[in-house]
Amino acid sequence: MKALVLEKKLELNLRDINLPTKIGEDDVKIKMHTVGICGSDIHYYEHGKIGQWHVNAPMVLGHEGSGTIIEVGKNEKILKEGDRVCIEPQVVSKKSKEYKLGMYNYDQKVKFWATPPVHGCLAPEVIFPGDMVFKIPDNLSYAEGAMVEPLAVGMQGVTKAKIKPGQIGLVMGCGPIGLVTGLSALAGGCSKVYIADILSEKLKMCEHYPDLIPVDLSKENLSERIMEETNGWGVDRFFECSGAVKAYEAIFSCCSPGAHVVLIGNNAEPVPMNWAILFSKGLEYQTVHRYSHQYEPSIRLLGSGKIDVKPMITHTFKFEESVAAFERAAEHRPTDVKLQIKIDEEK
Ligand SMILES: [Zn+2]
What we know:
Oligomer: single chain
Helix content: 10-25%
Bound molecules: zinc ion
């Protein structure tokens, strides 16, 4: 089967590779339709590693996928042939303690698509356990279906933030994860969400979302603006989605007393912590590592129109153009929000 294979750092080929073709009793086979390019895919392409995970053998990229069921295992009772679906790209052991406690995203032995040595889904067909495959409603496109994966990250953050109706949020970083986090926070009850970035081009995306209020860090003082517009109180919910050490400073200058802080943009370097303000303001911290139980609520919010990710899909490539798509993604153009690859040209 022809798939997009990362051979090693900076070497990608669309070539034949042996992938499983026989389904197990609990599996389904999916004809892939659309796959989004994630920051992690680009990182593996550019650096050949992320933290502890190294690409030591050729690996198929892609984990943000949607498609159509073409075969079901005999134990599968919900899905059937022809269903349009998106795939939660993690296989966890039902015997793991993390799974039993409902936090399977922390299962240390999880097999996550396109995380070495696990192959991803930039291939015409994939096999996956049926319980991690979710139907999408007719009013959602495959492109939107492939956005459920990044959306699930934002949804996880917002779920952890325990938003109360009418609260004010602040998101640091206006990339795809910052945007889906902001939109999830609005869907979760925030009255408005500020979203800050140092690149003004990225903030243009807010034109599509009236309740996402852009703050251009190249021109404006974030804490002054926040304090002025919240009568000196600060924001109730803070989401770090940039991965930049500098962004953490805004926690201490922009948060209200009792604010919840959710860290989503993971950081490889140690980050200074202002413990005095943490104590005096009683800030509550949460972290996000992937997601658990977020696909169904994410799909419902997309289906109802309460979250619209369509404007974020800024360019779609053909499967044959996959290598070019990654070269483009590696340019990190600020106006490219989500690049996707359409594998199935039929629909
Ligand atoms: Zn992703």
